[in-house]
Amino acid sequence: MTILNLVKLCVGVSDVAHLHALQAARAAAGHILCHRTRNFPRRANELRDGGSLYWVIAGAIVVRQPITDIVEDVRADGVRCAAILLAPDLFAVAGRPMKAFQGWRYLTGDDAPADLIDGAEAVGEAGLPDAMRRELRKLGLL
Fold it and tell me: Where are the domains of the chain?
């Protein structure tokens, strides 16, 4: 069986360290780690069975976060939504460029970028510093 994942833009986040800091602050304040989305994923049961949320930061999929559950929720303004509950762990993945899109997309395990093993050297685009990779993308060189 192939694992099903989601891919989502991480709007307003500059790099993985920034995402980690934002989520650490949220957890320290006693909030659960989740991403709220307007639509409830039709394939939620498949996502709960080992899926991850792959974050697109600065134009590339660079990190994944395991999904622990997906539940019905209500936003502060009273609008119903889905809450994608997330584990606190962030796993760096081999960078893959991705253009901006709205909402989220399904990503099968076979199509998902591979995890980078701690201590392993990234090659190609994934081996570039974040700032350099962003600048090269702006110039159309990546």
Answer: 4-138
